[in-house]
Amino acid sequence: MALRYLLTGGGTGGHVTPALAIADELKAHDPAAEFLYVGVRGKAEEILVPRAGYRLKFVRSRGYPGASNPLALLWFLIVLGLGMLRAVPILLGFRPSVIIATGGYVAAPVLFAAAVLRRLGLLKSKIFLHEQNVTPGRLNALGASFADRVGVSFPETLASLPGDKGAYVGYPVRSAATGGERAEARAELGIPEDARVVFAFGGSQGARTINRAVVDALPRLLEDPRVRVIHGTGRHLEGAAYDGAADVTARFAEHEPVSGQEERYSRQDFFHDIGRYYAAADLVVCRAGAGTLTEVCAQGLPAVVIPKANLPGDHQVANARVLERHGAARVLYEGVDLSAEGAVESVSGEALAEMASGLLGAGEELTRMAEAARQVYDPETLVRIRRLIEHLAGKGPVPELPSPERRPVDRVLGLSSNALDQLLRRLAAGSEKPLGAGEQRLVNYKIDGFLAAADYVERARGCRMVGLAGYAERLPVLIRFAAARRADGKLGETPIVRRDALVGLGGLGCVSETVVETLQAGLSDPYFEARAAAAEAAAALGRSTGEPGPLAALCEPMTTRLADRSFEPRAAAARALGEIGGDGEVVVAALRRLYFDRVWKVRSAVFDAISRLVERGVLPPNRAEEEMGRVLITSTGYITEYPLKEAYNHLRHVVNGKEGE
After folding, report:
1. What domains lie within the chain, and their CATH numbers?
2. DSSP state for residue 68 in the 8-state scheme
3. Partners of residue 265 on adjacent β-strands
4. Which segments within 22-65 are labelled E, that is strand?
5. Does residue 352 have a pLDDT over 90?
6. What's the rounded mean pLDDT across residues 341-358?
7. Using CA atoms in the order 492, 498, 504, 506, what is the torsion angle rounded to 10 degrees?
8. Which residues of 584-603 are buried (b: 16+ CB within 10 A; e: fewer)?
9. How far is residue 56's CA from residue 44's CA, in Å, rounded to a whole number?
10. What backbone phi and psi angles, to 5 degrees, belong to 32?
11. What whole-number distance in Å separates Cα of residue 189 and Cα of residue 183?
12. Beta 335-339 vs 342-346: how paired, if at all?
């Protein structure tokens, strides 16, 4: 009986092409084998699989939306359930010997349906997963518990897998992407032999960061008459939010045409014969998907790698770092750019042009990088994967697999926004080993990713981390995010993001006229926590600078917050006046309205403010002592530590200390 292989995985070419590479290898050694691919309509597999000559069936599936949106999560579960119902008759009808899954949400219905059917004894198919990235995706991390074997592309991934299921096999690349001879490819493409070719692309659907950076870099790149740029904008798939070709056209409309653009720059949406373009190239500019990087290494090409931010486990950054450590690539990290769309990930066209031009002009360095890339690629990958799958199908012995050295993973990579926030707090407290220069770059990169995230909670945490990390370059982002309304009159960020942008401002320690204006606007924000954060930021900046300076302009609006309807802004404003007030008597007179405030936390803040006035030398100790007795120090509730009394005692200690000087 012929062996049957069911392949699944997709959504993007990065999941489809490794599955097709595996299928091609199995078919070449067993022409009688039967193949069926299961994917989702409107995605990359609908184009790539029939073109490769394999049967294709469809199920329903969608990406995991996270738990923060209950309605989106419910819809995800409904669609997943419908996909599983459709997958059941496909599995029972085809009855594969081995199910080969290469990740992506497309594979979820098939894998989960297969797991249920196997548990019920209705299906005997073996399950082989392939993880392309250093950090396993959500589906493969979950599927590893019921898969028979999990092949990985990087040794670092083995530590993330249960038991002995993991097998280091490498990344499968189709021969069409690795073949090609330079002279022949250039002749077919009409490229002179002495030209310096930059091949830039962002994957099957394109990458906004790369597309825009290439357009912006073009004037500098084409200054050298030998340079030619081949640009893949990405194909717009049904339902996809990003249209690369349209975005590039719009970007070009903002630029004057440059000399040589028509003759030495070309673009198209997708490259079916990508191997020919690799063969013609001297330098690649690309994302850090494992498939792309493996293809580049197989061709022995130096690369400028721009990993995508905000992916699970930072897997693209981890992939890029592997090549960087081998000397096969240079890495440009995405930053965040303020545009009409809000904060978006970006890479400076100038930075890309400088790095690419520098490499093209350094022949020896390009040669070293090319050789390093060839050393990374393992041509035995497909052979190992085929033998492992054939063994699962009952055809052949257990293959010998390499046991590579497991290298350490970067400390910062894979951290969620919450975990990174905690790390930065430990660093600030001195309880964590200081960051190295490389780690600091990664921290800034991750913060930029959070600032540009669609989820407002991520953006808010990113704002706080700007202050914790001292990331002063992102001051303009905080100022933009803190505004209740933007300069164009449109509503600004969500209240929580505005609040945390003000918190971040306080942590940066940067005082300027614009910062003061931002804090003043924040004191009138409709959201009470934002008003409190503006006051707290002013207090923090006053402490860090040691003198009021421009912050003195906030004393009057800060005084109005002492009458705020919410107690948090009242308390924060009182403490801020203690830090920035230049006339102790004026501040005390303003604070008197809070001496009998109904909230004890506000009265505690009064003591804190007077303490700071005395410590700063703007209020005599005897005047502080006079005011102390006028503040109500009783408190309702059952608080063991009695913070109000502690604040009172602290003020008493400060006064006694000053009187003893």
Report:
1. 4-170+380-392 (3.40.50.2000), 176-376 (3.40.50.2000)
2. S
3. 229
4. 34-39, 56-58
5. yes
6. 91
7. 110
8. beebbebbeebeebebbebb
9. 12
10. -80, -10
11. 10
12. antiparallel
